[in-house]
Design a protein that fits this description.
heterodimer, A: about 250 residues, mainly alpha, MetI-like fold, about 80% helix, B: about 300 residues, alpha/beta, 2 domains, 14 strands, transmembrane (chain A)
Chain lengths: ~250, ~300
């Protein structure tokens, strides 16, 4: 409960900082005296935050829609032979640097959010696949044997026994994917996607280090906040399991 | 109730079962006895179709199980395994309610049944219903496993080495609970074990498996008697077998009339093994029997009854 209250306070602080950013002219002038217009005024920081979050969370959602079923398939008896293929495909996707993925996607998908989304999906899918597969593989064999012997259908075993038991591992994979995706979304600004990386690109193009610092600061802060929030969620989900250890 | 007809099964190159045929009468507690790798677990698992035999058929209440829906079949058969397999994310009560929930019972009926079952297996419902499996001892967990298997009141119970992982005291407690449940319900129970003592303590039929074959099948004292098959003699020394056999014989059946002054007194319903242990403990060659008329059991009578004497 106290951890949730702390997190709430931190989110408020983050939003307050976003609100204050275009109004803190004197602070940024003091830090970057050589820059004539040190605060980013082109767009509201809240607009940037909104589209940044929409882009990165949509990417995680699409990645989950691909990777979770793939992870389930790879752990079924019939799908086990696909496991090495799936692993290789998703590892290849992740080994591609996001900048390169965006660059490759540009001529196909044009400027804007689409190439960024593609790069993010490729990037977030591997941790989700790994987490799904290893979470399902860690389900105790005796519980599965009992579930089969008691007459649970394959789908009931998955929904009532395997996925609930794999949940802590799945949530930790989701946490990695979200953090990675939020941090990487900033790269999308190169392709013209509107996000917290936009001021960074704008600052780099216009020799304005104040913009770069502001964009980087808020991107990193957002990623850390989401990591903490998902950590809290995982801890809450795991608290029932925690009684086992206690 | 259960009939095996020419069951054979191969796992790859391993011949696990070779033309096994016998029947388990309704209401009996039949123990499948054998060394590990003898095929006894595989045979047990053909009944609820966790193993589909390569040849032969299993009849349950006269119906070939191969023609039934496996999920529906399993919901009608209790199943208990050595490693228990409670669902760690569900409470004791929810674990027990698994099959009734699958069968669509209403919540009130399930709650009543859970309470009844916890009492039946000797666990206080108020204390244990909401506990998670991880907080239970091995013996408590297997009591819950037994309750879960009995939840929908199946006529047949399959048990795969249910008590083998428990310490001797806990094992005896669970054996007593099972005997009580069997006597009170008339269920047909098929149980796998490698423990001859357990087989003698529980079974009214014993089937001995050896290298995938049925070596012998029949009442315990016949199967494990002086002419026990080689596979049984390999599993347990003849003297130990003779000692365990005493547990299947009631002391009252070997009693002689007349008092035995100064001899230790055996409680009613005791077995000849209890009598022998009491003699050993007191250095006596006879024990008196509790009851209306004065009766006693002598060492000579005991040896004669055991069939191990001259």
């Amino acid at each position: 409960m106290r951890r949730a209250a702390w997190l709430g306070a931190e989110i408020l602080a983050f939003l307050a900082a976003l609100w204050a950013a275009p109004r803190a002219e004197r602070l940024w002038s003091a830090l970057f005296p050589e820059v004539s217009r040190p605060t980013y005024q082109q767009e509201s920081w809240f607009t940037l935050l909104g589209s940044h979050l929409a882009l990165s969370l949509l990417a995680v959602l699409i990645a989950a829609a691909l990777a979770v079923p793939a992870g389930i398939l790879a752990t079924r008896r019939r799908g086990r032979r696909f496991r090495p293929v799936l692993d290789a495909v998703f590892a290849l996707a992740q080994s591609l640097p996001p900048v390169a993925a965006v660059a490759v996607a540009l001529p196909l998908l044009g400027f804007g959010a689409a190439p960024t989304l593609l790069a993010l999906v490729l990037y977030a899918a591997l941790p989700l696949l790994r987490a799904t597969a290893s979470g399902l593989e860690a389900v105790p064999a005796d519980a599965l044997e009992a579930a089969r012997g008691l007459g649970l259908s394959p789908f009931q075993r998955l929904a009532q026994v395997e996925l609930p038991l794999a949940r802590p591992v799945l949530l930790s994979g989701l946490r990695v994917a979200v953090t990675l995706s939020v941090a990487t979304t900033a790269v999308g600004a190169i392709a013209g996607a509107r996000c917290l990386g936009t001021p960074i690109i704008s600052g780099l193009a216009n020799a304005n280090p104040a913009y770069v610092l502001q964009g980087a600061l808020f991107t990193a802060w957002l990623a850390l906040l989401l990591d903490r929030a998902l950590g809290l969620l995982a801890a809450e989900g795991g608290s029932r399991m925690g009684e086992l250890v206690a | 109730m259960i009939r095996f007809e020419g069951i054979s099964h191969r796992y790859g190159s391993v011949q696990a079962l070779r033309e096994v045929s016998f029947g388990v009468p309704q209401g009996s507690l039949c123990v499948l006895l054998g060394e590990s790798g003898s095929g006894k677990s595989t045979l047990l698992r053909t009944v609820n179709r966790l193993v589909e035999p390569s040849a032969g058929r299993v009849l349950l209440g006269g119906r070939d199980v191969a023609g039934t829906d496996p999920q529906a079949l399993r919901r009608g058969i209790g199943y208990v395994i050595q490693s228990v397999g409670l669902f760690p994310h569900r409470s004791v009560g929810e674990n027990i309610a698994t099959v009734p929930r699958l069968l669509g019972w209403d919540a009130r009926r399930i709650a009543l049944r859970v309470e009844e079952l916890l009492e039946m297996v000797g666990l206080d419902p108020g204390t244990y219903r909401d506990r998670l499996p991880g907080t239970l001892s091995g013996g408590q967990a297997q009591r819950v496993g037994l309750a879960r298997a009995l939840a929908a009141n199946p006529p047949v119970l399959l048990m795969d080495e249910p008590f083998s992982a428990l310490d001797p005291g806990t094992r005896r407690g669970l054996q007593a609970a099972l005997r009580r449940i069997h006597a009170g319900s008339g269920k047909t129970i098929l149980m796998v074990t490698h423990d001859v003592e357990e087989a003698l303590a529980l079974a009214d039929r014993i089937a001995v498996m050896d290298d995938g074959r049925l070596a012998v099948e029949g009442p315990p004292l016949e199967v494990l008697g002086r002419h026990a098959p080689a596979t049984v003699r390999r599993m347990v020394r003849a003297e130990v077998l003779a000692f365990h056999r005493l547990a299947a014989l009631r002391a009252a059946d070997s009693a002689l009339p007349g008092p035995a002054p100064g001899a230790p007194v055996l409680p009613e319903g005791a077995t000849l093994r209890d009598a022998l242990l009491l003699m050993l403990g007191h250095g006596a060659d006879r024990v008196a029997l509790m009851g209306e008329a004065p009766r006693h059991v002598t060492l000579a009578a005991l040896l004669a009854a055991s069939g191990s004497g001259g």
